[in-house]
Amino acid sequence: MSWSMLLSLSNPLSPALHRSLTLKPTNYSVAPTACLNVDVRAPDSLLHETRSAEIIADEKKFIVGTYARAPVVLSSGKGCKLYDVEGREYLDLTSGIAVNALGHGDPDWVRAVTLQADVLTHVSNIYYTVPQVELAKRLVAGSFADRVFFCNSGAEANEAAIKFSRKFQRSSRPDEKDPPMEFISFTNSFHGRTMGALALTSKEHYRSPFEPVMPGVTFLEYGNTQSAVQLIQSGKIAAVFVEPIQGEGGIYSATKEFLQSLRTACDNAGCLLVYDEVQCGLGRTGYLWAHEAYGVYPDIMTLAKPLAGGLPIGAVLVTEKVAAAINFGDHGSTFAGNPLVCNAGIAVLDKISNPTFLASVSEKGQYFKDLLAKKLGQNSHVREIRGFGLIIGIELDVSASPLVDACRESGLLVLTAGKGNVVRIVPPLVISKEELAQAAEILVSCFPVLDQGTKN
């Protein structure tokens, strides 16, 4: 199906129950919604400290402490800008950890969500709904896949891929008493926080507090073709999980030779190749799917972060041979693929899949990498600037945390990755070159903080 035909597919747009909660009254309030081109004045510093401090204090009282949050209370956003409760502006190069691909408050996304919420939000997967089928049709038309399973997050997508892989092996080898049930994952990998996805995640500090996790996972060096092929040939491996570009792991890119070797070895052994594109997929590299840059295609691909533009969604794209092994009742989810998130997904996918849009991501990504190389390439703390499209990493010889903190204080939001020594840059895909230039200036101005850390 051509993209013109794909984009012509119909986009269906067709009193909540309130739960009373008795909470301790608070004397803080949310600032008026701020937006671009509006003069937002911050109150005096005492009010700033009081309002933010009280909200942060209440968070510590009422929310389980699983997050080491930055001391910022965000209240609104527009485009690539975010605003805290005092109205202070931040240039957002995090996009909610690669989620808000269209930025904040994209009008087409808002329209799709608002109109769908007014028509139908949730009915469960006991029934058919139009937006779910329409989004699946678009995903299939624009990818290697034949069918789609919807879930609610990237971790859930990888959990489903684990189950689908094992069910496929049992289904395709009915006469074998012990079909392949093990998995290969790689160093620096991140596949999620649930018990199965966690078992595929290489960082030991994520796994060790919750062991024993799912057994049967072998971690190999990312990019080591020989060891991977050798283990696949053992006949014990149900599936190989690999990120074409590792995000959390430090913005490391696979090579075509590595992925092609995995593909060939999997085909020869009857093993499945699973691409985790939860962070690197859906336009972030300048290709709709990151693996398209290599021309090597998987049996299963997991998606999530940007697909519904900020609403929780995950998806598992599979070939027909994998789908044929899955029967009614093998897997499911109450909330997955509801009309609201799927209509949001249609709005996101229709925009990002436009070839002109994708070309702009490639152009802006190269522009920003060149700019960073020019301004930071000679800095003694910079080991490498890598990535492509708008997923970029700046590897340092020291912890990136002081730089991230300094950037935040200067109105720029960036992330860390890897072993904490990589600045991860994943802005909204709609960011302008002018905003990227502004971000580069702030980054450069904050780099001296790394020298202070070295002296201390």
Automatic annotation (TrEMBL):
* Localization (cell): Mitochondrion
Coiled-coil regions listed: none
Q: In which pathway does it act?
A: Amino-acid biosynthesis; L-arginine biosynthesis; N(2)-acetyl-L-ornithine from L-glutamate: step 4/4
Per its UniProt entry, what is the enzyme's top EC class, as one word?
transferase
Q: Which UniProt keywords apply?
A: Amino-acid biosynthesis, Aminotransferase, Pyridoxal phosphate, Transferase
Signal peptide coordinates: none
* Chaperone in keyword set: no
Q: State the SUPFAM superfamilies in the record.
A: PLP-dependent transferases
Q: Which cofactor does it need?
A: pyridoxal 5'-phosphate
Query: Sorted alphabetically, which Pfam families does this protein's record hold?
Result: Aminotran_3
Matching CDD domains, A to Z?
OAT_like (cd00610)
What NCBIfam families does the database record attribute to this sequence?
argD, PRK01278.1
Q: Which protein, by its recorded name, is this? A: acetylornithine transaminase
